[in-house]
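Working notes for the structural subgroup meeting. M.R. asked for a predicted model of this chain before we commit to crystallization trials. I am recording the input and output together here so anyone reviewing the notebook later can reproduce the run.

Input as submitted:
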Amino acid sequence: MVFVSCKSGSSNSSPSQDDSSATDITLAAPEKLKDGELATYQARLNELFDKQLINRNFNGAILVAKGGNILYEKYVGFTDPKAKITPITDSSSFHLASTSKPFTGVTILKLIQQGKVHLTDDLIQYFPGFPYPGVTVKDLLSHRSGLPNYLYFMEDKEKWPAKQMVTNTDVLNFLVQYKPNLSYRTGSRFSYCNTNYVLLALIIEKVTGKSYPQYLSETIFKPLGMEHTFVYTPTDSGRVMMSYKPSGVLWDQDIFDHTYGDKNIYSTPRDMMKWDAALYNDAFISQTLLDSAYQPLSNETPSTHNYGLGWRLLNLPNGKKVIYHNGKWHGFSPAFARLTSEKAVIIILGNQYNSSIYKAAKLAYNAFGDYMQNDTQAEEEPTITPIPRPIAVEKKKTAPSQAQKVKEAPKKTNKVKPESQPKVTAKPKTTPKAKATTAKPVIKTTKTVKPAAKKQTSTTSKKTESVKKKKS
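Returned structure, recorded in token form:
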């Protein structure tokens, strides 16, 4: 639970009506656990993570909590796993990759609550000249827009300089100028696309008159006391943690490292615990509105996996439900899952790519009940698939001739791209485990129940701009 205090002359003012009135949101005391409950959870989680993650080349941070009680917390390795100079601590901020998307989604929902945005708004209302009529705010939030992924179309070297950094505004201008074809008809199906959340960040800026980094800082990070959480901007280049390949080699940055809304929030496990707690409080956001974000919106084919408004959903046959959002960007591989029935949260952040993170996070669900996760499941959900051939929806479909069929046959490609996701029913593929190194990691274990804020740890590594394969 969270409680809100406001500086306002009106007794009717609340952060849910006007975020500018929020000055402080303080976490309440943890809920009381039953006798022996803490020890039971700690034993389960210690056994799980020791077996599934800690000894599998893991470099990062783990926190599991229930009702505000920290059940398990561990920091392993170094901000640079090869240099081994600065240990990872509870104030080390990790790139959240696509785990940033729920922050964008909740911010849009809060603007909807204030009457400044509507789910049914056509994007042309915010972006005059937007060449895709009928695409709405809801389509963006639920990944049903059909828009092409900017991580693909802006790699066209004839239309965009190969080494020039891309901004959110650049993505919008490229769409307006070059009008790349839709990947599929708007609203007809789900397909994960980072373009959606880059545009949502621009809508936030258009409506509020403030930059996305500033607005999130003023309305979420500072009010919640998330002291080590921020949206990356180029001015942060010298202070952020970098990411690494399983071998420990630095993962180079690329031209897409300046866009936000779809990624680029940095945070810590303890700050993410505060974020989870705020989502249970009606003063922060209307629970009725937030519940609508947890409803599955892509039901073309029945599946336990689905997507709502900014959240991935796991709806199990036994009635159990997980609200989560993992991510993958370069070597950063975060997992964030909320088990709302138990008020439990599982947070794993890493900066050396390790697919075991996703599997360990899923298996941790079982510590809180029958979540039907087992050791034979894939370590991560599918995020990379062949792209469907784009379509120009403004033209009527005609049956192609045999010659056209031969001419238009899609070319085979081995190029790997991030998070262009298949339909929600796609069967996941198992990712090979990262090879373990022989160096023994530094491990810091905390068993405290009450979190304490500390100063942020930073690195001095500078971002580079050479283009490499992307993960999101």
